[in-house]
């Protein structure tokens, strides 16, 4: 099999393509011949040495794949063999063959390609947790979505519109036309406009019921000030800690310290009638039944035509560095995928 490894921290070119023997599935596992693998910003943070959950180097990153099961381990139902699936991986997803516990694999609905399947798990489960499970978004609410053109952003847009909410999207100017075509009512240029001032202008000074922010540092402070009474701020990343493509410890430290200095004390939250919560899907591996339930809901949304992942770029395994450049340059409108060349 082929795998993409992080053997040292640094720029995208540090990613290495290596050959290895195909793995054998263990008890309760299925083996997947991967046709597409998702690329996430957590992989970028891991490559830079900024992701705290990354195992010791060398390591194969990757959290999601789609393909076909060709083998099962002991104590696993044999009828998995031959199924087209999408699956979650706890690292190791940048491989053209993976073994995962069967509880982390889900049969793809009719009409869902491997590429669309690989674009769904991380982005849509994260967005579902942010918007519906913890964000409590309702019809007639207004939501501000940062990085609205990214994979999580587009997933959140689709889920918010399903509910009947009003969407404000923050993204670079070049993505605004596409976002409006998806149903975003107001677009804010994240590079040139003060999103806090624009949100208060759009909302008539009231603010919004829900903000989704993965930027960090000063953005968290401004997002908090965008909240209306009873508003909630959902935090799900810290992209400010990775300002460029090399490991810049000082810049990362500054972003981290700035974020740690945020003050959301209990009295302040009570007096303002606001809420702040965080989401890290990678820390929910023990919640298998809950995650499976969320996934089944999302797959039903797919069948009903409510959600449709948007694929922004496809890169062969040999071009993994280009995929990371593409993502970090914010050129993507939707999901970035890696495509094995041999399966």
> What is the rounded Rg?
20 Å
Number of domain units: 2
The coarse silhouette is globular
Q: Please provide the count of β strands.
A: 15
Distance between the termini: 9 Å
Helical content, roughly? 25-40%
* Class inferred from helices and paired strands: alpha/beta
Q: What percent of residues are in strands?
A: 25-35%
Low-confidence parts? 250-258
CATH architecture of the largest domain: Alpha-Beta Complex
CATH class of the largest domain: Alpha Beta
Mean pLDDT: 93
Classified in CATH, the superfamily of the largest domain is Medium-chain alcohol dehydrogenases, catalytic domain
Number of helices: 11
- What is the CATH fold-level name of the largest domain? Quinone Oxidoreductase, Chain A, domain 1
Question: Could you describe the largest sheet, including whether it forms a barrel?
Answer: 7 strands, mixed
Write down the secondary-structure element order. Answer: EEEHEEEEHHEHEHEHEHEHHEHEHE
């Amino acid at each position: 099999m082929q795998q993409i490894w992080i053997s040292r921290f640094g720029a995208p070119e540090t990613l290495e393509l290596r050959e290895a023997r195909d793995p054998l599935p263990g008890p309760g596992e299925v083996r997947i011949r991967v046709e597409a693998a998702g690329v996430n910003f957590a992989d970028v943070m891991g490559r830079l040495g900024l992701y705290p959950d990354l195992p010791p180097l060398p390591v194969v990153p990757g959290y999601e794949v789609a393909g076909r099961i060709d083998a099962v381990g002991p104590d696993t139902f044999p009828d998995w063999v031959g199924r087209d699936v999408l699956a979650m991986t706890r690292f190791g997803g940048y491989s053209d063959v993976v073994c995962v516990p069967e509880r982390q694999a889900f049969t793809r609905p009719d009409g869902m390609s491997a590429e669309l399947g690989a674009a769904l798990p991380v982005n849509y489960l994260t967005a579902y947790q942010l918007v519906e499970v913890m964000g409590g978004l309702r019809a007639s609410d207004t939501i501000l979505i940062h990085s609205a053109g990214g994979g999580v952003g587009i997933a959140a847009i689709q889920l918010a519109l399903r509910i009947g909410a009003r969407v404000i999207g923050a993204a670079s100017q070049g993505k605004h036309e596409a976002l409006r075509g998806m149903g975003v009512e107001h677009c804010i240029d994240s590079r040139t406009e003060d999103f806090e001032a624009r949100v208060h202008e759009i909302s008539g000074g009231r603010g919004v019921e829900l903000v989704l922010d993965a930027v960090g540092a000063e953005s968290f402070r401004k997002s908090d000030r965008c909240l209306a009474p009873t508003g909630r701020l959902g935090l799900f990343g810290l992209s400010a800690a990775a300002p460029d493509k090399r490991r810049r410890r000082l810049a990362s430290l500054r972003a981290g310290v700035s974020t740690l200095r945020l003050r959301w004390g209990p009295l302040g939250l009570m007096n303002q009638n606001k809420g702040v919560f965080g989401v890290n899907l990678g820390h929910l591996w023990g919640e298998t039944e809950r995650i499976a339930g969320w996934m089944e809901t999302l797959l039903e949304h797919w069948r009903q035509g409510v959600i449709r992942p948007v694929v922004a770029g496809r890169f062969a395994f040999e071009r993994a560095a280009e995929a990371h450049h593409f993502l970090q340059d914010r050129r993507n409108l939707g999901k970035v995928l890696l495509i094995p060349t041999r399966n």
